[in-house]
Amino acid sequence: MSKRFTDTDKWKKPFIRGLEAKYKLLWFYLLDDCDHAGIWIVDLEIASIRCGFDYSEKEVLRVFKNHIQVVKGGKYWFIEDFVDFQYGELNPHNRAHASVIGKLKKYKIKPLISPLHGAKDKDKDKDKDKDKEKDIPTFDEFYEYGVKYRNVDKEELRLKYASWVANDWRDGNDNPIKNWKTKLLNTIKFLKLAESTKTRIAL
């Protein structure tokens, strides 16, 4: 048995006050019988039996016209204010809210996502970008670090550096380069040595 919030001020609202008793009862029935996303599988025959009144779809839609959205050709109804009242603005990082968002998207109903969390996500992205910028070396740093471990040809290192920059710091397999120093040490053994090193080896 699921539990839901109820609006204790509903009796003061013009929409509820203006309904005939049979439609007041039907409205509260819909709020109880819809799923957790405010979507009700239309079955007025069962609703009529349970509420004790006869209902026609045409008349119900006329009475509830500004509060119900017809979905999937009339097979489902979406109760407009249900999600806002039960959850407020939806947060995709909340597991319960994510389930509601998924359901609404399935029926092509635009969910109300919290702008606060959208802003937080953007801030996180900015922070990541800043961190990424901090991790990206200049070519001089790149070169100096590489030649400390192997006397690699400078032009070879320049080409490798340029290729990673052009590929947004992803390697040849399109994997992100998380630690450029480690990646460079694994790469320089495949690069050409500087001419002076070759000469010493030949001698």
Can you give a write-up of this model?
This protein has 203 residues and is mainly α. The protein has 2 domains: 10-106; 134-202, no CATH class. The protein contains 11 helices and 3 strands. Helix 8 (139-149) crosses helix 9 (154-166). The longest helix is centred in the middle third of the chain and has 21 residues, at 115-135.
Topology, pairings included?
Elements: H1 14-17, H2 21-33, E1 39-41, H3 44-51, H4 57-63, E2 68-71, E3 76-79, H5 82-87, H6 95-106, H7 115-135, H8 139-149, H9 154-166, H10 180-187, H11 195-202
Antiparallel strand pairs: 1-3, 2-3
Helix pairs in contact: 8-9
Biggest sheet features: 3 strands, antiparallel
Per DSSP, the total helix count is 11
Q: What integer value in Å does the Rg equal?
A: 32 Å
- In the predicted model, the low-confidence regions spanning at least 5 consecutive residues are 115-120, 197-203
Q: Name the strands of the widest sheet in spatial order.
A: 1-3-2
Determine the fraction of residues in helical runs and give it as a percent range. Answer: 40-55%
What sequence of helices (H) and strands (E) makes up the elements? Answer: HHEHHEEHHHHHHH
Q: If you average the pLDDT, what whole number results?
A: 83
Structural class: mainly alpha
Total E-strand runs:
3
What shape does the CA trace take? rod-shaped
Strand content: 5-15%
N-C termini distance: 86 Å
In total, the number of domains comes to 2
